[in-house]
Amino acid sequence: MTEPAATYDVVVTRVFDAPIERVWDAWRDPDQVKRWCGTSLVCMRAPAEYGGQDIYSTWTYTAVVPNDRIEYIFNFARRDGSKLTPAEAGIEVGVPQDGHHVVRFRDLGGGRTELTVTEHGYTAEPARDLSQAGLEQYIDKLVESLRRQP
Q1: Do 125 and 16 meet the contact criterion of CB atoms below 8 Å apart?
Q2: 137 occurs within a structural domain
Q3: Which of 30, 108, 113, 127 is most buried per CB count within 10 Å?
Q4: 117: domain range?
C-alpha cells in the first residue's frame, strides 16, 4: 500500500482593528479588492532574484458565506485568463495544480476582526514557504487599504 504524499498548508492569521463587515467588504467588493490585490485575474511580478517575470492567476469561487468564509480555487493563468499548470507558469515543484484556499472571518467584538487564510496542498516545504511570504505581502496590503478607508 502506497502512503499518500505529505502536503503542507499555508496559514496566515491577522487581527484587524475594523468591524467584520469592513474586512468582509474588502474581500467582497471588487473596487476594494483592486486596492490591495487586483481582480480575479491577478498579475504578480516576481522579485528580481526570482526572475522578475509577470505571473498571472485566477480565482474560481466555490463558496461565499457572508461575514464567515470565502473558498476558491487558485490556478496559474496566461494573460488572457486561460489556465496553466504550475510547470507551464515556470513555478517550482510542489505547488498544487488547483490550489484550494479558504478565507475565514471571525468577529472578535469591539470593532475587531480575525482573518485566517489557508492555502491547501503544497507538496514541498520551499514552495509552501514562498507562497506564505507572498500571502503575507497581500495581507499587508489589505491592512494598509483598511487603514486608509474611513
Answers
A1: no
A2: yes
A3: 113
A4: 8-148
